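Bug report

Summary: structure tokens for Universal stress protein E differ between web form and batch submission.
Environment: batch mode, default settings.
Steps: 1) Submit the sequence below via batch. 2) Compare with the web form result.

Sequence submitted:
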Amino acid sequence: MIKYQNILVAIDPMQDDQPALRRAVYLNQRLGGKIKAFLPIYDFSYEMTTLLSPNERISMRKDAISQRTEWIREQASAYLAAGVDIDIKVMWHNRPYEAIIREVMEAGHDLVLKMTHQHDRLQAVMFTPTDWHLLRKCPCPVWMVKDQPWPESAKALVAVNLSSEEPYHHELNKKLVWETTELARLVNHTEVHLVNAYPVTPINIAIELPDFDPSVYNDAIRRQHLIGMKALRQHFSIDEKMTHVEKGLPEEVIPNIAEHLNVGVVVLGTIGRTGISAAFLGNTAEQVIDHLRCDLLAIKPDGFVSPVDPNSDED
């Protein structure tokens, strides 16, 4: 079955240009399916206006929703005129990420696209709190679209974790590579590269153990990761020249390889860690994300359950 047949585009209310919608149409023209342009809106002043009756406040909400719906229809007019199947939905909700995730659950969306903003000084992608909530909690893949033109001859880069002994990481690696190669085959036949970062020698070991040989340690770790990469690439018949095993931190290695290869999208897995564990441990994926300068496609492992309750009362 072809994936990404029911795409949700999170509309940016702050600008007229909608790169995420443009990317969704690009996918739709190659994969088929349908698109929903979705926008949650909220104005706290409407709730604080004590001079208005409840019915008047409801009427004001409806007017705001109607105005935004027409605004989105104008943004999508060229696509609609060309026959692209785009549904438009605007709803009143004070937490955008919850509204998006609930819509994904209720309508069975299989991909969310949302625009990210480019940081002027560092030329890195800057993520909003809503972006982070989606990356951690959305049950379907999330594609963060950079607000710049797609690079010519852009490649896809899959970041895999070959150091973990946890079984779910092996299965997630396979899922990432399979979904990326399928997407590349169906959409634009782009090159798919794999990248893995392996750790440097721990300084404390080198200091505390006089007989410790860092070069032997590094060689052993590198061999281990090369063996893991070989098994993964052979499973998917990927050429060795399309794989990259580099020493260093993932948040340094992966963005560097992506920039060197002129990558259009980096694909990585997010386990969705939240709460105290996220605050103190952090997600490797999130550290990588913060350094990327290109599009990002984040995919959850099979069996992931979103912490957002689809049945709780809406605000």
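Above is the batch result. After comparison, the two runs are identical; trailing whitespace caused the diff. The first strand starts at residue 6 and ends at 10. The chain has two domains: 1-146, 150-314.
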